[in-house]
Amino acid sequence: MTETTRATNGRSDKRNGRARSSALRLAPVFSTPGVHPYDEVTWERRDVVQTNWKTGEVVFEQKAVEFPSTWSVNASTIVTTKYFRGALGSDVRETSLRQLIDRVVKTYRKAGEDFDYFVDGDTAEVFEHELTWMLLHQYFSFNSPVWFNVGTKSPQQVSACFILSVDDSMDSILNWYKEEGFIFKGGSGAGLNLSRIRSSKELLSSGGTASGPVSFMRGADASAGTIKSGGATRRAAKMVVLDVDHPDIEEFVETKAREENKIRALRDAGFDMDLGGRDITSVQYQNANNSVRVSDTFMRAVEDESTFDLRARNDNRVVETVQARELFDKIAQAAWACADPGIQYDDTINDWHTNPETGRITASNPCSEYMSLDNSSCNLASLNLLKFLRDDDSFDAERFEQAVELIITAMDISICFADFPTESIGQTTRDYRQLGIGYANLGALLMATGHGYDSDGGRAFAAAITSLMTGVSYRRSAELAAIVGPYAGYARNADAHKRVMRKHQAANDSLRVFGSLDADVHKRATAAWDGVVKLGETNGYRNAQASVLAPTGTIGFMMDCDTTGIEPDFSLVKFKKLVGGGSMQIVNQTIPRALKKLGYTSETSEAIVEYIAENGHVIDAPGLRPEHYEVFDTAMGKRAIKPMGHVRMMAAAQPFLSGAISKTVNLPETATVAEIADVYLQGWKLGLKALAVYRDNCKVGQPLSDGKAEKNADAVEVEPTVIEKVVYQPTRKRLPKSRPSRTTSFSVGGAEGYMTSGSYPDDGLGEVFLKLGKQGSTLAGVMDAFSIATSIGLQYGVPLETYVQKFTNLKFEPAGLTDDPDIRMAQSIMDYIFRRLALDYLTFDERAELGIYTASERARQVETGSYLAEEVEEIESESLKNDAGDQVDTDTGASSPAAVAKAGVAPAPAGARTTSELFEALTGTSVDAPLCLTCGTKMRPSGSCYVCEGCGSTSGCS
Questions:
Q1: Mind spelling out the 3-state secondary structure of 610-675?
Q2: What residues are labeled active site?
Q3: What is the CATH number of domain 161-351?
Q4: 503-529 pLDDT tens trace
Q5: pTM of the model
């Protein structure tokens, strides 16, 4: 795509005082010579209307915005609401994607020409058209600040990630508050390490005792909360780090766990403690992610169960000696209780540091992917990996290389014209030029190519792609250094930088490949790293850092990605908005492609897709071999990826990244403190730079639903100064003496029994009695006890749907054929009983959400091809084509992925507004994520942050 060539115009680069001897010459790769990229797509006008689902209030409306017809409604909505500039209703308001892309790309082109990157105007035009083409076709995206600011009258801030510094003085602490405020106001996030501040166990020069860093965190947290509530583009995002040898480390570790206990107490007293609730603001430390910076010395002491010294900040004397294992367990206990603190591995981070002569890496940005010098920033961009998967399921590594080269060039150009919130940040960024190229859609790519996320093959493919991306980035950085010079801080760090390049190269050389797919990528990565080392010896490097893996929340939606960052697929069924209004649920389009890759026929694939549409998982899907289940494992659901599966994927990619990885390892609510401690220990052993965990339902302040109104409350009129008392106490509703009932005889796998179910006069199930086995036998006694427990639960208000969700699909003997025409097979007695109860007492709509139908209902499905076939035909066919292409292969007549997927298309449940809510409606499993403060819909995890599918709002910084 590119080559370095001699300049012919005789200009010199006056900005660094040396003669300009070479420049880039670019040839078209993506765009068509002589044709503008805009002329190659079909454009259409859409109305964007956004409503708060909780209040019904219209929060945004813009008519007749222009987008390519291939862009989803969700992508166009998010781009319109988040990135279009100008006051609504004014003449200067942007109304087309063309205007947005032109505003950004033309600014980049002009800067590239002004700063002598291109050999001539023709090359500059190729650069403009190539960038435009890739953005237009959703091959990559810059991070959000670029879309917010570039080409506007606002400061040209292009960075999403900032690292600040604070010293042990009041001036420095107050300056920290001010700098964070400016960064939050601009829609970005910042992190810093507080370890230079004296502990509360040390003396001041005046003779008094120091306050300690935790006390100063209160002021910063209050400032962040105030700015967040002021209506900025996104919530304030911040990271606070403390070294493990700081004397106040235990107070820091327990800070947020204590606040979580306070939240529970206030909630039980009747206060509104939901995220965004009116009383949550009284709780401290909720605006920051906390992380402990641990050393290898400490981790070895944990393993050896030996002691560890906590040291004074000024003179390094030992203030206290603690048991390392006890302190480590306290970190795990706090993370179990409230998900904080995370952990950062200091020695690993600094062993891969390219600029140690300038200073150590002490902190990260809020999402933990950017790690570099204090008072620095990083601008990010992410590639859509699925765009590089050819029709024959091979990965187009050559075009991937060419895309990386162009994107790195553009990102480096942006530093030439960018503005920064403080002069110290601007100076460090211009001197070291840190970049953060990354990717999204890894989970979808692995599934489409038949790789399990938690498999050796999946990890090898991900590692090879990451190695190629970073290798090509540094090779281009070395090429740019020959044109416009290495970064200003390179000379003093040259040996260290080249050492780290050799470490990356060695990691690539030791990478084991598993097939032709990753072998080709690895071969190119090996060539790229060879070029990195050789060119770097001669030219140096233009950039101190090149790559990170960010959450890609909002920009992931802009690119219509199924998965974000390094994450696996969230769920197998997703929520899709339609042009002209309405919505539907659709099985992810990577699933039919994966089934074809795995060798399944179109008929079998259709059956599997239909099963997934009804159940939300692949367990016992008809015709699907169990050894292929792992390909369809997801972040949530019955085949959720195990915690160590996430850790191992991070470990596979980490050696090939300049920075780190934004990702939270999710654990079930039943996870123990010991399990969290083991995850943190294994992260250190596997060479990660940072790790965060989240145990489901560990935080009160992140509501799963607006269920408060459904709780029984006994409010008493009191004096205004007394808090309203809310009592949460279920009431048992007993059945009348005489009640309707039905008795069902059944046989499951040859085992016979009887079930008697009694109901209230208003036709609600209230009791169940089971007769199985001989009277007096252990089995009969267990079934009697189970019947009593279930009946009492029903009378206390436990919904039958909850029992059905919990007990269907349980597998144990006896199992097999039944004598019930509606339930021909059962996986256990419990599976049969609760399917029968669902058929007897739940409505069709309630059963449809659970995937339970009568024989006649299933027959109607077969007759129509799908139980919602008629409704599906009324849905706009273009929406399906946008997702999956044509319906039939004209050469073979075989069903295409779209035709296979049609069995998995249905109108979305009425209560669903996002994929998270659809997942909950389909599976009955809660997604432990907050509601969006902008539009009220359920967010979903994205890296170490949360992102809203409805409006694109995120809880993070990138």
A1: HHHHHHCCCCCCCCCCHHHHHHHCECCCCCECCHHHHHHHHHHHHHHCCCCECCEEEECCCCCHHH
A2: 365, 367, 369
A3: 3.20.70.20
A4: 999 999 999 998 888 999 999 999 999
A5: 0.78
